């Protein structure tokens, strides 16, 4: 009886262990399967949906699917060469054409394969380059000149609250309620990132053009989320400060030192007194700001109002954004750009006035 009872317990133990092992293996298979599914699904999507910059890739005669996969992965046009090979086998894709291609990281794997099979490169209908330091009105002029849209219609959309609110839902981490502050001149000022944009159509829909620029801003700022949090800066504050740095900087300027001057002034409650904000308030472009200009009654006038202006006064490039987040450690309170483009930094008003007199005398 005891022997039979022991055998029964042993059998139950074995069954239980087999059940546990099977359950663990099944769970592992499910996890591996789900992970593989998510990985493959991600690999089929564009590397960067917001990056429409053309990337040149050459496909030599006699290239196999594996060769093509490696080239595309090296150019960061696809996320995984292995998934590309699997996809090609599964879909029985063949007949890839040798040639020179202009592809973008905004293309899905399926779209890239389609182009490689037909031997057609990306059709570039419109190539739009937005320079750093451009103001919203200037960008509207650029779009109008390149597409034929009326400047008035472009500005109307750029200020359309319903349209902007739709953009806010799509990019909530970048477009916040700050852009609708009553003192802000244009809600999207500073949010149309300086870059080169490529569209398949010669005259793409206006919302598509504008959203591409906002999407690029969102993509750029996403890399600086931790730095913004550390500095306790909102996207609006960051783009505002970056725009001041962008407008003050010359090719030879040290943006980090310019940023340090602004930080030092903000810390002691001293007005920023930056001329580009006065010109923005005036709505004019002038070689020199006159003393009478400093009296313009505007919330953007940083001679009259302390702190940052209500919003950006232009778009800012990556260098100015980095400088706004990583200013140099200095005790400078003044800087002056010389006619040669050099920027001279000083600590006291007396030093600043001495340098100002010296270089203004050369103008």
From TrEMBL:
Q: Does the keyword Lyase apply?
A: yes
- Write down the superkingdom of origin: Bacteria
Q: EC number(s) for this protein? A: 4.2.2.29
Which keywords does the record carry?
A: Cell membrane, Cell wall biogenesis/degradation, Lyase, Membrane, Transmembrane, Transmembrane helix
Carries keyword Ubl conjugation? no
Residues at the site labelled Important for catalytic activity: 248
EC top class named in words:
lyase
Q: Which reaction does it catalyse?
A: a peptidoglycan chain = a peptidoglycan chain with N-acetyl-1,6-anhydromuramyl-[peptide] at the reducing end + a peptidoglycan chain with N-acetylglucosamine at the non-reducing end
Family of this protein: Belongs to the transglycosylase MltG family.
Sum up the protein's function in the record's words: Functions as a peptidoglycan terminase that cleaves nascent peptidoglycan strands endolytically to terminate their elongation.
- Any idea what this protein is called? Endolytic murein transglycosylase
Organism field: Geobacillus jurassicus
Taxonomic lineage of the native organism: Bacteria, Bacillati, Bacillota, Bacilli, Bacillales
Gene assigned in the entry: mltG
